[in-house]
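Subject: Sanity check before I submit

Could someone independently write out the structure tokens for this chain? I want to compare against mine line by line before I put it in a report. The sequence has 294 residues.
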Amino acid sequence: MSDMSKSGFIERHVTTDDGLRLSLRDYGSHHPGLPVICLPGLSRNSRDFHQLAELLSTDSSLPRRVIAIDYRGRGLSDWDSDKSRYNLVVEAGDVIAVCAALGVTRAAFIGTSRGGLTLHLLAGMKPDLLAAVILNDIGPVIELAGLRQIQAYLGRERLPRDRDDAAKILKETHGTSFSSLSDQDWRDMAEAIYRETDGQLRADFDPAIAEALAAADLSQPLPDLWAQFDGFRPIPLMTIRGANSALLSAETLQSMAERHGAMKVVTAAGQGHAPILHLGEVPERIRDFLAPIV
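---
Independent answer below. Compare away.
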């Protein structure tokens, strides 16, 4: 397991216009050139990208600066007292604010799940910011079956006794979809998801986020984002899909490739929603895709 200590990154903080302090990890901040900015999923945080960020920031041929952001209400960022502000528009604005505070005017972006939805919005709100985009198991059509799965497991959190128990819970919940993971991979996932608070390991996000999803009506199809997806047409684009994903269908992935015309496609074997980006052939494919983006 990669050591998730502060070696290898600088912990930074940015204050939003509405006064919240956002936390981020800044790997290889001394590297010149185009940075890579990582946006996590709905209830996840910057730790999801730790091993990938280490790989990219220490690459011998083209080391990159990698910035991984904790959204408001996740990780080490402040929780919002107004829970209605946990929405994509506000979070996209937070990403723009972070970039402005760090002096980043152009970057390659990796968006996992909700992070990829945020990138759909940024393609319209701030297209010049996007030098390249990697969507991790997300697209303009969200399958309700996959969203119901997320709704179900976020709504029945079982507090682990310790980190080994946390890894066991994750394997019991997601093991069918993530058949390729080793025991160490499950422990690494637990390290990314849980944080100890007052002597108890808890998933590292504001519970209001799960409560909002639990209350959502998933009986009808969600509005699609094809109009926003079209904003990626002039931008180099890669989409990674977990072979066992229930959120991004193979049919939607094919339509995305046809509509974009030059989209690169990667299938993460033995993984579901959302693929772990430092496993298997995925990191090499990410490096190859980013290589000409300067």
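---
OP: Matches mine. For the report I'm noting this point. The first strand starts at residue 9 and ends at 15.
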